[in-house]
Design goal:
Pfam families: EamA. It is a single chain. With about 290 residues, the chain is mostly helical. The protein has one domain. About 75% of the residues lie in helices and about 0% in strands. Helix 1 packs across helix 4, helix 3 packs antiparallel against helix 4 and helix 4 packs antiparallel against helix 12. The longest helix has 28 residues. The protein starts with a helix and ends in a 12-residue tail after the last helix.
């Protein structure tokens, strides 16, 4: 258990570096998303081939992997653009509302009835969001594009969680990661082509940042998190992942000189507290135990 907790903690730290690097603006958000996935895929795919993990048993699995790849890619792309248009802290907090959207989507499409703790957590989290963005913004309906992109990122990630949970039931983790990241890379490649992004000509610092994103923030981070997930309760892992907002905020204050006001801290605390309440369950397992 100690190894699992250590792996989870390190994995969260690796992910927390990501929004800070993207916020530095060394490359565009979209090209950053592509190289994050492409570099991780290039490293994992040969290993998966040697291990004999590159096998898809049915068309259903293929389309499940394809959908997971597109959803994850869309999440990263939208999140990256959101980070560059706002702050690392705000974008991370908004995308971390994904557990709320998991509950809502499960309620609407999977015939799952969340408990009272879910609705209580939702109310607390939404209150925290209002505090975080500012009461004046809410009263004037002055939500900017970056704010809505952060929300959309959380929705994409919630869809990814729901679909991937189903796909992983009959598939090896390495197989899932290899193919879903491959499809994510392909999807992001065409997205960047569509928007006219350049795939080269970056500074040395930019290439280093892209390598860090691909190796540390994607490949190493998710391998560590999956290692922990196998040995810990899924609810604990999911809840722990939300702490990346705290780490991202701390890193942003150090490397990006972002200032956290008392209002931001109170709002962020309420958002995370609300999400924590939605994950509160008794000891028996729950169908939507992510």
């Amino acid at each position: 258990m100690n190894k699992a907790r250590a792996a989870l903690f390190l994995g969260i730290l690796c992910i927390s570096v990501f929004p800070v690097i993207v916020r530095m603006g060394l490359t565009s958000g979209l090209i950053s998303a592509f190289y994050r996935m492409a570099i991780a895929t290039a490293l994992l795919f040969p290993v998966a081939a040697v291990l004999g993990k590159l096998k898809i048993e049915s068309k259903k699995q293929f389309f499940g992997l394809l959908l997971c790849g597109v959803l994850f890619a869309a999440d990263i792309a939208v999140w990256n653009v959101s980070i560059q248009g706002s702050s690392a802290t705000q974008a991370t907090l908004l995308t971390n509302l994904s557990p709320i959207w998991v509950g809502v989507l499960s309620f609407l499409f999977l015939n799952f009835r969340p408990k009272k703790s879910f609705w209580l957590g939702t109310a607390v989290a939404l209150t925290g969001m209002v505090v975080f963005v500012g009461f004046d913004t809410v009263l004037n309906f002055n939500f900017d594009t970056a704010f809505f992109l952060g929300i959309l990122s959380g929705i994409f990630y919630a869809l990814y969680i729901l679909v991937s949970k189903n796909v992983l039931q009959k598939m090896d983790v390495v197989t899932f990661m290899a193919f879903s990241m491959l499809f994510s890379s392909i999807f992001l490649f065409f997205v960047n082509l569509f928007f006219g992004e350049s795939f080269w000509g970056f500074s040395t610092e930019a290439w280093v940042s892209l390598l860090v994103q691909g190796i540390v923030c994607q490949l190493i981070a998710w391998l560590l998190i999956i290692f922990a997930t196998k040995r810990m309760r899924a609810t604990r892992v999911s809840l722990s992942l939300l702490s990346q907002a705290v780490f991202a905020a701390l890193l942003a204050t150090v490397f990006l000189d972002e200032k956290l006001t008392l209002t931001h801290m109170i709002g962020g605390f309420l958002i995370l507290s609300g999400i924590a309440v939605t994950f509160y369950e008794k000891k028996h397992k729950h169908p939507a135990d992510f």
